[in-house]
Amino acid sequence: MRVAITRSSLALTLVLTFPPVSGMEPGDAGREQVERRSVDVDRPEPGDPDLRLDAGIPPGTGVSPPGLDLRLPPEWQITETAAREPLELSVENAVFLALRNNRDLAVQQLEPLIAGTFEAVERAEFDPVVFAEAAMGRDNVVRQSTDIQEEVDVASRTEHVEGGIRQRLATGTELELLISSDHFDSDRTAEQFSSRVGVSLTQALLRGASRESNLARLRQAELDTLASVYELRGFAEVLVADVELTYWDYVLADSQTEIFEEALAVAEKQLEETMRRIEVGDRPETEETAARAEVALRRQGLINARNERARSRMSLLQLINPPGAGWAAPVNALDSPEIIAFPADPVEDLIALAQRLRADLNEARLRVQRGQLEVVRTRRGTLPRLDLFVTLGKTGYADSFGSAWQDIDGGGYDFRAGLRLESELGRRAARAEHERAGLSRQQALEAVANLSHLAALDVQLAWLEVERTREQINATVVTRELQEEVLRAEQARFRVGATTALAVAQAQRDLLESQLEEVDASVRYRQALTELHLQSGTLLVRRGIEAPGAEEVVLR
């Protein structure tokens, strides 16, 4: 089964594929900063055909798509009591349904898309910008004429139109192309038109001159997107583990219910036999109390077991969210807890896999790389700003708009070049920001080291639990077989009057406990294996589920 994430402006697609094929790479995010390595683990055999599952974001605005009904469907309302066909489930089918229908996973799938929008925002910093401006003005100025010594009103009219394109480059260069036209007319001068074409270049020499520094925010956004993909992988892995654990909890509760039902039937049969023997005077009436108490205890255990089975069933249904099913949908578990227990893989190998494959560790390493980029970005901020600027333009003058543009190749031109310096005294804020970036990166490194240590501890504890439950399986089988012999012996002695109903009830109780412990050990072993694979970061790979984020992130 393959789980892949594809990004677009509208939808996030979760692809589940049987058999395993090469998954989609999550892009080249952080390629200059992060090295990722693929790790191979044994995979299961091929299976079923492809399925494509879309969790789309519909066009338009609003909290929810038009026509989306946010009310609880009738089948999921607590009042639903209609009889349904049992839902036949194996553990593999349960995992498949969860990956396809789980609502929490559908929510989490949108995180890479949301993170990708920040990446687009940072990339837009280097997009070309087109600008235009049109303006007109009217002036009426009173002036003193030197010829006639009188005040004269001078009315003038100006019109200005300009447009151009501007772009900022990652090298710290800003380019601008400008085209403008001006019109001037007044009572005292002839109508004048001018047109200009100019180009300007501004190059940062100190602050803002580093390509790595200018691209730092974009690289950080790319790493954030990639980190969200690893976070999604970790969420999917935990979801698969939760489904398997809950499935086996339901299997355990169902098996315990059957054991209690059988034990109740045996206790009721023992009560009937005791009553017959009391009637014929073979047993004292006091033994009726012990037999009835045993029946009451079995009925009490059966009630609890049925309640636990219902709780596990509802938890499983919530995780897999099968279409058309509700809280009342019955579930028939196809997998049996009876298994052959094998020793787990060497713990050293599992710890090594955890260090390479665990999604939380790889995500934490990406955060370290992000912190390194912040150090690079803020380092340039401690420098003063020194820019070189060059402006060159050609201007045409005439008495009409068209003639002004025809005169653009005449002798009119303008040229400016120089340096612009700007610096905050002390640069206290920039230095503090750079220091904070360095400390944050050091903190992230310490967090990775701590998380790596905890991952090794988690694997070792999970491995010990696997070994414990594996050994318990054989021990509980032997105990159950011996308790069966004890019960048969007590029942035989009871028939010949050599023991009491209380002793038989105690033997039945011991057998019941051994039966419960046997099925519990088998289920706990399966759950311990799932937990071990989860802690070692190999659960998805061992289940044949391919998802983005399977590559190791290596810190440089």
Relevant terms:
single chain; 556 residues; alpha+beta; Outer membrane efflux proteins (OEP); 2 domains; six-stranded antiparallel β-sheet; 12 helices; 51% helix; elongated
Protein described:
- This protein is an alpha+beta fold and 556 residues long.
- The protein contains 12 helices and 13 strands.
- A hairpin with a 6-residue loop joins strand 6 and strand 7.
- Helix 5 (216-279) packs antiparallel against helix 8 (359-381) and helix 6 runs parallel beside helix 11.
- It is elongated and about 150 Å long.
- The two termini are 33 Å apart.
- Residues 1-34, 43-70 and 78-83 have low confidence and may be disordered.
Short description, anyone?
The protein has 556 residues and is α+β, with helices and mostly antiparallel strands.
Structural class: alpha+beta
* CATH fold-level topology of the largest domain: Outer membrane efflux proteins (OEP)
What would the principal axes of the Cα set say about the shape?
elongated
* Strand order in the sheet with the most strands: 6-7-8-9-11-12
Rg on CA atoms, Å = 39 Å
In DSSP terms (H or I, runs of 4 or more residues), the helix count works out at 12
Percent strand: 15-25%
Q: Indicate the CATH architecture of the largest domain.
A: Up-down Bundle
Look at the structure and give the CATH class of the largest domain: Mainly Alpha
Low-confidence stretches: 1-34, 43-70, 78-83
